[in-house]
Amino acid sequence: MGSSTSDVIAWSRAVAHSYGLRPAPDAVARLAVRAELACDPLMLDGRPVLAQREGRVLEALGPALPPLVVVGCTLGRGAPVDTLSLPVREPCDADVRAFERLRALLRRAVATGDAGLLGEVATASAWRGQQTLDHPEFDTVTAIAGRVGAVGVQIAHSGSVAGVLFDPAAPGLRHRVRSCLRALDTHAIPTTRTFTTTTKELPHGPARRGGDRPSGPDTDRRPARLPAL
Predict the structure, then answer these.
(1) Helix (H) or strand (E) holding 191
(2) Looking at the domain covering 65-229, what would its CATH class be?
(3) What is the pTM (predicted TM-score) of this model?
């Protein structure tokens, strides 16, 4: 969910393209880190990998993450976050042990295609991120996820973009998603778009597509087919 990383990648590739060049993912990663300390798997061609702040890949987790349906929303009413001003929290021994546990769970989730386990890891990661971000709506979003049968939540590591995660194979998915949208609206948490991480449509109805539409609290919702991410 790295919007700054997306910007840096786009600029890097556009400038390289103007010179007839196609830089390797690791070269783009180095440029992204030097430009804005931006680092996430977006700059590594979308592979599910574990990468640290300098853009070095620690582990390739597999070919793809388990399929998910994501109800996107924004916290703090989408107010921008000055990512460069956020404090860098030095991990203690307990943090390192927790990270290793999450890493093992994530590895298993990718290997087995377990959406529920992936949601557990995403929620735990989001919870730890709140030690820095401290979004006031975090508890509300996680409570809604639990009530509607979602597998978890994800939150941008340094921003306000969030998502409630669903297993697309779970029964009653359409009802769960609608209940989630209603609950978020009740708590005045703006939703952006609902999408899948596969080429399949939502069961019993199409996914909503962002396309070239802006994401924000005033974005209209209209049904459409969704291409693969």
Answers:
(1) strand 191-196
(2) alpha beta
(3) 0.76
